[in-house]
Design a protein that fits this description.
The complex is a heterodimer. Chain A is an alpha+beta fold. Chain A has five helices and five strands. Classes of the chains: A alpha+beta, B alpha+beta.
Amino acid sequence: MTAIRLRLNGSDIADEVPPRLSLADYLRERRNLTGTHLGCEHGVCGACTILVDGEPARACLMLAVGCDEREVETIEGFAGDPTMAALRDSFHRQHGLQCGFCTPGMLIAAHDLIRRGEAGSEHAIRAGLAGNICRCTGYTNIVAAIAEAAASLAGGPRDAE
Amino acid sequence: MPNDAWGIGASLLRREDERHLNGRGEFVSDIKLPGTMEVAFVRSPHAHARIRSIVKPSDAAGRVFTAADLPRIQPIRIVTQAAGAKSPSWTPLATDKVRYVGEAIAACIAPSRAEAEDLAAAVTVDFEVLDAVVDAPRDLRGSRHLVHESWGDNLYSERVFEGGDIEAAARAAAITVRREYRMRRQSGAPLEGRAVLAHRDHRLDEIVVYASTQTPHTVRVALGEFLGLDLRRLRVVAPDIGGGFGPKARLYPEEIILAALALELDHPLRWVEDRGEHLLTSAHTRDHHYRVTAYADGQGRILGVDAEIVVDAGAYGLWPQGPYQEAAMAARNLPGPYAIPHYRARAATVATNKAPLGPYRGVGRPGACFAIERTIDEVARAVGRDPVEVRMLNMVRPEQMPFTTVGGMRFDNGDYPQSVRLCAELLDLPAVRARQQRGEPDGRLIGIGFASFAEQTAHGAAEFVSRGASIVPGFESCTARILPDGSAVLMVGIQSHGQGLETTLSQIAHHELGIDPARIAVRHGDTESTAFGFGTFASRSMVMSGGAVARASRLLRDKLCQIGAHLLQCNVAEARCTDGVVRGPQGSVTIAEIARVAHLRMDGLPPGVDPLLDATATYEPAVGTGVFSYATHGAVVAVDPETGFVELLDFAVAEDCGTMVNPMIVEGQIRGGVVQGIGTALYEEIPYDERGQPLAGTLADYLLPGAAEMPAIKIGHLHTPATATEYGMKGMGEGGAVAPPAAIANAVRDALTALGNSGAEVNETPITPQRAMAAISKARGIGSA
C-alpha cells in the first residue's frame, strides 16, 4: 500500500492504495465515483476522461499513486461550473446522448475544448473530439451541442433547435 | 386526444438524460454489493485444440472453477425447427475441446480483478493443438478438418430459396453481370462491454443476475433451463445498458457461469468484460460472402438474380436463435426493394474456428444490401445508364403495394422511388456531377453512390414461425398502473439500451390518457417488476412495446371513464377522458380524483367495478410478416488515387418509417445507425490468420468511427403510415446501418471510373486504403496486391 493525498472534486483526501491500482478503478471502486466509465481500458475510447490538474486525462492509463499531490475532477464534480452547466443543457436539448456511456468523458472533453477556445467551428469541434468515441449518436448532435454551448457562453446567439 | 408538445409526433426531450449528464447512470459495473468477488476467465489461446488436462494452482481450492466443479450447468442447446439444420451443444466452460480463441475454460475468483487475472494466469492447461477451420467458402463441405467431428462437414445449414424460373431469366437476358462480394467479420462494439453481477438472495430464495443484456426475460428463461432452476428462483435485471446493437440480445456462457457460482458461494460475484474479451468473445457479425449473377434486359431491367451466399458463423450458435438467421435473412432480402421476377439463392451457414456470430444492427441485411446494390450499379454500367435511373426502373412502385418480393418479403406501403429522388436532391446530385467534371486541384477523385433498401420491422409470430425459430418473439407486454395520486407507471417487458424508450413510451401513454409524461414512470429491464417480454432487437421496440402501452392505457381509460361517469352522475357513453380529466356533459373529474377513489375510497366506486387502476395488455401487430420502413442512402466521397484513402464528404438519408412518435429520437437513431454502417464500410474488421488467431484485440487495431472522420448526416423524411400498427408506426432502429456500405462502395466505384477503361471497383468491406489501392493498381495494370 502506498499513501496518497489528492484533491478530489474539491475535497482533500488522504488514502492508501495498492501501487498497481489504476486511477479509474480507484475512483470507481474506492470512491464510488462511477460516472468515470471504462470502455476500453487502453486509452482509446475516452469514456474515462477526467481532469487532472485541470487538464484532460485518461483515468484508465493513470495509476492512483500517480495522482498524489494532484487535483482530480470527475463528472460528479463541476458544481457551479457555468461551462459544464451550459454543456449539460445543450446536450439535453440537442439530443447529444443516447445510452449515456460516453457522455461523462464527452462532456469533460467538450469542457476542455471550450476552455481552450477550440470550439469555434464544426471542424475544430470534430477534430477536438478525436479522442472520444461515441457508438450511438453518430456525433452530429454532440457537435451541435458543443457549438451551442460555446456560443451561449461567448454571449452569442444560440442555434435554433 | 391531446395533440401537443408531449404526445405522438412531439420531439419531447429525453427523461433519461439528466442522470447520464451528471454521471449518475447505473450500469452493471456501477452496482455495488457488499462482499462482491471478481471473476476472471481462463480462455483458450488456441482456435482449435483438445484439452488434455487442466491443472489448478495448489492453493486454489474454492477459487478456480472448471466445468467439473459446476455439474449443475447443462450444455447450451439450440432447438431449431429449420429442416436439416445442425445444432452443436456448447458447454459454457470447455471440457474436452476448445473451438475458438477466447472460449472460456475456467472461472477464477479473487477480491479484485487484477488478483483474479493473476490466478487465471497460474492455471495450466495442456492443449493438443489442432488445425483450424478459418475459410468458410473453402471449407464448408468437407475440409480435412471439422469443427464438430460428428457432423462430417462444416455446415450448420444450407437452404435453397427459389422464386420464378431463373433459367428462363438467363435465356432472356441481354446482359449478364457476375460479381463476388465480401462483407468481412466485425464486432458490434457497444461502448459498454458485457457485464454480469450475480448473488443469492436468501430471503427471497432466488438468484439475482444483473446483466448488460437486451433481453432480460429470455435470459432468465435460459438460465432456468441450463441451471435446472424454477424461474421463480431467478431474477434478471438489465439496468442502464451502454449500447447493445444486437450482440447483447443473446445468452452468453458467462451469464450461466456467474449464476451457477452464485448458487454455490456465499458472496456476490462480478465479471466485467474488458475490451479484449469483447473483441474476442462477444458475438461477431457480418462475415458474408456472395457470388451474384444478375440477368437484365438492354434497358437495365433485372430479369433474374442467381446467388450463392456463404456465412461464416463461427464455432457455436448463440441461444436462442442459433446461427441460422443470418444467411436466411440475407437470402430473403437479397432481391432488395425491387420487382425482380426470377430468383434463386443457395445460402450456407458454415462452422469455423472463430467466435460465434450473432445479431448486429441490420443482421443479414447490410450484406444483402451490399450485394444487390453493388449489382444494380454494375447492371446500370453494363447498359450505359445512370445507376439512379436503373434503381428506380427496377423498384417496386407505390401502385404495386402491397407487394410480395421474389424473396418472400411482403412490403406493405410507401413510395420507394421517391426516396431515391429525395436522396439525390439532399446531396444536390447535379452539383456533385459538375464538381466531378471539373476535377479536384489535389487530384482526388470525386464519386457519388446510392443504395436503397426496405427493412422488415416489428415482425410478429408468423415471421418467426416461418424461420423455424426456437422461440417466437411475436409480442410485447405492458402493465399500466395509475397510482393513488394520479401519477402512473408503465411496466414493460421491453428493454431500452439507449434509444430513449423511457421517453417515447411515456408519450404514448400521455397520448391515450392525457397524463403529463413527467408524471409517468417507465420501468423496464427487470423480470421482477415487468410482465414477460422479449426485449429490444429486430426494430421492434417502439411498434411492439408502444402498441402494448397503447392497449393497456386504453383499458385504464375505459375504467377511468366508468368511475368518472359514476362520480359525475352521467352515462359512461357521455364521459370522455382527455388532458388528464374525465369530462361529462356537466362538470369534470381529474384522474387524480378518480385514482383516489379507486384505491383509498372504494365506497365511491360504481356497483360491480373493482378497485385499482391496473391493466396488463400484450400487443402483436395486425400483420405478422412485418411492416416495412424503407430508405435510400447516398454518399459523396473523395478517393485519393495515390493512397487509396477514402474521405466521406457528404452523406444523406431519405427515409420513411411511417408515423414518428418522437422525430428527434428517430433522427438520432438514423444518424447513429449510419455511422455504424460507415464503420462497416470503411474501418471495422476482425481479421483471422490461417491458424485462427484474431488480429484485432484492441481499439487501436479495431477502428471505430470518430467525430473527425464523420460528415454531418442529412436526413429527409417521407411519411406513409403503416396500416397494421398502432398510430401507423413502423420500426426503424436498424435501418441506418443497412445501406452505408453499399452506398459508399458505389460512390467509390463511381469515383474510380475516372481511371479509364472499365475503372476499378472495391467489392469487399471495409474499404481500407489497402483494398482501394489494390483495385486502383489493378485498373492501372500495375498488378494486384
